[in-house]
Specification:
Layout lengths: L7 H21 L2 H14 L3 H23 L5 H25 L10 H7 L4
Helix pairs in contact: 1-2, 1-3, 2-3, 3-4, 3-5
Length: about 120
């Protein structure tokens, strides 16, 4: 039986790139500072997986900012802000779980829009 040779250097590179992309993806969901760090890290070593989750995280940050502005409106704005914050927390947890499980799955509700809006990042 003859075994086919495998290129261990290529396999090692793919593993390193996957691990770096996963690290970037997870860091992008850890606060605004984590998002900035992930963005800078991804500029050094391009990772499509990391960039995907950076785009999703930027969308979450933008939605949070919008909710903050809406929360300034008395009564109705406060209600929308509280419900929106709960929704953002749910989306954040789902994004973090997807990043840790190495899945390129859009966030619930707004993930497809985030892909469209931030595709140039």
């Amino acid at each position: 039986m003859e075994s086919t040779p495998t290129n261990t250097a290529t396999n090692t590179e793919e593993t390193v790139n996957t691990n770096e992309g996963k690290t970037i993806a997870v860091i992008s969901y850890l606060t605004i500072i984590g998002l900035i760090i992930a963005y800078v890290m991804n500029n050094d070593k391009k990772s499509e997986f990391g960039a995907y989750h950076i785009r999703q995280s930027i969308g979450l940050a933008a939605a949070g900012l919008a909710l903050g502005v809406i929360g300034l409106i008395p009564i109705l704005g406060w209600i929308v802000s509280v419900l929106g914050t709960l929704l953002l927390i749910y989306m954040w947890v789902m994004g973090l779980i997807n990043a840790m499980n190495e899945k390129r799955k859009p966030l619930p509700f707004l993930g497809k829009k985030f892909e469209e809006w931030f595709k140039s990042i």
